[in-house]
């Protein structure tokens, strides 16, 4: 903002200097005949007299009268008025004129300065408008990314509906809220898991203590001659083992608890809405990566689901095709079966073996073809969860050495 203020000050100074120069040029500029319009009119009248034409002085602004010298008036050249003397056809003529340079100059300067003032005020108002509507909102959000990176998520952003950045501010504030909510959820999840593990660990100690006590009794032969007691001890040990197993299963179940909190907004939408979003991003991206990219022909139809989530699923599939394919070609095809629309992404160069194919939708699972490629193993797992929430499906298959992943959407 300081740079803009300096720019605004520079513009104002330049305007003042320009105005001063224009006024000086008009006031002190070299005056020629073009600066004395009465001379021009006198020349025109002289030409008319020379041709013998009648003169209408009402057509002239500065020439008041024209008199011919007859040689009898001694005061012909002693007039208080301003005049010009011209010899026309051998006779002497006096052209009386009135002209005030100062009044004309003042009028010109007034008009010039008014015009310049209008222009300058317009420019300044425009610059101030840019400062208020563009630069000020941008300055407000300029530090927001770094604050988000630092974890400072408490201060909300107010979206100005009249600002060019109103929608962006609103979206950025939604991002801040989502990050803050995710942070709180992570903390709550960690807290709950630790509490659960501590609680279960404490609960496990009791059956372990009983097992340990009974085991030592059997080891020392305390019930050597009491078969009935031995049988009860063995039964007790088995019961405690089952109890411990249940605790362990609960720990495993808690560890595998879904932490993504995925949501969908299911409705009817045209499939072209999704494909247009894919085109806007991937036609240019594939061109830059020099990957052959083809989107097959399809009939626009109404399907059921969440359009934004459907775009997210297809983007994930295309990113995987880019990452794990050979970079030769990627395509999207469409098939209609009964009341369903099948959309398949196909890429060449798949090196995943058949035994691994059933596991690609498992969470945190990564195949043998992921060497050198970063990832969490959650992409396809999330895709499966989303398709399930949209009452759809997703499956993968090998098609003549190509990887083919298909999503299924119900038709409206």
* CATH homology superfamily of the domain at 267-410: Histidine kinase-like ATPase, C-terminal domain
Counted beta strands = 10
In whole angstroms, how far apart are the ends?
A: 53 Å
Q: Regions with pLDDT < 50 over 5+ consecutive residues?
A: none
Q: What's the CATH class of the domain at 267-410, please?
A: Alpha Beta
Describe the main β-sheet briefly. Answer: 5 strands, mixed
CATH topology of the domain at 267-410, anyone? Answer: Heat Shock Protein 90
Radius of gyration: 46 Å
Structure classification:
alpha+beta
- The secondary-structure element order is HHEEEHHHHEHEEHEEHEE
Mean pLDDT across the residues is: 81
Shape: elongated
Strand residues, percent = 15-25%
The helix tally amounts to 9
Helical residue percent?
40-55%
Strand adjacency order, main sheet = 5-7-8-10-9
- Looking at the overall shape, the CATH architecture of the domain at 267-410 is 2-Layer Sandwich
List the helices and strands and how they pair.
Elements: H1 2-28, H2 37-51, E1 63-68, E2 82-88, E3 91-97, H3 101-142, H4 144-150, H5 166-219, H6 227-255, E4 267-270, H7 271-289, E5 292-295, E6 302-305, H8 307-324, E7 329-337, E8 340-347, H9 379-389, E9 393-399, E10 402-410
Parallel strand pairs: 5-7
Antiparallel strand pairs: 1-3, 2-3, 4-6, 7-8, 8-10, 9-10
Helix pairs in contact: 1-3, 5-6, 7-8, 8-9
